User: Fold RagB/SusD family nutrient uptake outer membrane protein from Polaribacter butkevichii.
Amino acid sequence: MKTYKYIFLLLMSLSIVGCSNLEEEPIGLLAPDGFFNTPKDIQTAVNAAYGHMTHEKFWGRKMSLPLMLRSDMVAIGDLTTSSRRVEHDEFTVAADNGMVEGYWLRVYQIIAASNQAIAGAEDVNVDENVKNPVTAQAYFTRAFAYFHLVRQFGDIPYIDKPVTDLTTTSSLSKTAAADVYKNIIADLQFAKKWLPNTQAGRSLPAKSAAHSYLALVYLTIGDYDNAYKEAKGVIDNEGVYNLGLEADFQDLFNSSKVDASNEPIFVLDFIGASDGDDGRDYQAALTGLRDDEQYPNVSGGGWSVAVPTLAVYNTWDDRDYRKAVSFDNTAVFNGAVKPYTVFKENGGSGRGVNRPHIAKYTRFNGTSATGNGRASNNNYIMMRYAEVLLIAAEALNEISPGSAEAHGYVNRVRARARNGATFPENVSGLNQDDFRTMVLEERKWELAFECKRWYDITRRKMANPENGDVFGTSGLEYRPNFDVNRDYLYPLPADELARNTNLMPNNPGY
Assistant:
C-alpha cells in the first residue's frame, strides 16, 4: 500500500524542522488552527512523516549510506566518489560532514509531522476508539525517527510538541540518551495498544510493528528480559498479526512479490516515480556495478559506491542460499558475461572495483523511470519477522543460557537459508558465549546490507579490542582510524552547534 505517497504538502514543513534551523530557515511557523477535524486529517499529517522517510535525505541516500559504510561489511568501491561518503568509510568524519548535516534536518521533519498529528488529534472530537488507532501511527513514526537518532548521536534534542516560535528553538538543549529511550518506549507502548492487528499494507505500521520495535529497543539498551518478552509476544501472535517467514529468501527483495509476503513487518515503499529527490531510491545506484548491462531497469549500471569487502564474500559459505541472493559475482559488459575479478577493467573507465556487488536492490527493483535504478519499486524492509526470531533468541540466551527455545528460533531462520542444501546446520547445545557469538553472526548474514550491522556493532561494542576484532587486522575490513572513544557515535552537525550553543559540547572526539 502506497498511502504515504499522497502527502498534504502544507504539512510537509509544519512545526520545527531542524532544531535551531528555524533561525535561518523559518519554514515551520505555520500553525494549522482549525485543520484537524476528523481522523482523516490526522492521517494526512502522519502521511507527511512517511513521505519524509522516502526522501533522498533519509532512506534514499543520506542516512542509509553511512549505516552501510560504517559497518564491517561494506566499503567504498569508487574512491573518486564524494569525500563526505569516504569519511564514513574511513572514520574520518568531522562535524561538518555533508551526509550528517543532510539527514539531521530530514529526521526532525519526520518528528515535526508526527508531533503535529499528535497535537492535532486533541482537536478531533470523536471517540478515542476511532481516532487513537490513527494517532498511534504518529507515535510510531516519532519513535522510529528518534530511535535512529539516539543510536547515532546519543544525547539529542528531544521535542514532543509542535514548535511555533523562534525563541523556543534558540533555547533547545540536549536530552540524555536514557531519557530519549524512555520516551521512545512510551510512544511504542501507545502504538502497540492502539494500532490494529493488521493494516492494508506493510507500509503502514500495525500492532506487530510497535511490538517488534519495542523488542529491538529493549535489546539495544540491554534490557533482555523485556526484549525477550516483547519478541515472544510477536511470535505468540504470529497468526493474529499475519506473520511468517517467506518461503523463498529472494522474494523478500523482489519488488513484484514482496507486497504479498507475510514476513515484512514495516517497510518504506518506493513506487517507481519521484519528484526530484522526493521518493527517489538511490540504493540501486549506490550499490550497483558501473556499466553492468544485466539489469535493464538499472540503465547504465550503478556507481559502485557501497560495495561489500572481498572478505565478506570469501567468508560466506557458498552453500548458504542467502549468499546467492545477496551478491552479484558476475556482470554483463558489451553483451559478454564477466566475473567479478575483471569488473574494474570492464566498467566505468576503471572507477569500479574487482569485488562482488550487492544484488538485493538491483536484481528485481521493478520499473525504473530514471537512470541507474533511482526510481525503483523497492520495498525497504525496516523490520521483518526473521529479525524478531533472532531478537528473541539473542535476548533469551542472556537470561536463560543454553535453552532449546533460543536454539529453535535460530534454526527456523537457518532452515530457509539452506534452500535444499545442508548448510547452515541446525544449532544446539551451545553455551552462552558461543551462542551469543553465533546469533550475532547469524544476524550479520540474514540481515546483510539491510543497514542493521552498524547498529549491532555499536550496541554490543563489538569493535572494542576485548570484544573481538571487527575492525582489526583480521577483521572483514581493517579500519585503522576507528577510535572506540569516538566513533560509536556520529558528531552533532556543526551548523546546528553554531546556531545553538546550548547543544555544546559535541560528542567526544569531535
User: Anything to note?
Assistant: Residues 128-153 form the longest helix (26 residues). The radius of gyration is 22 Å.
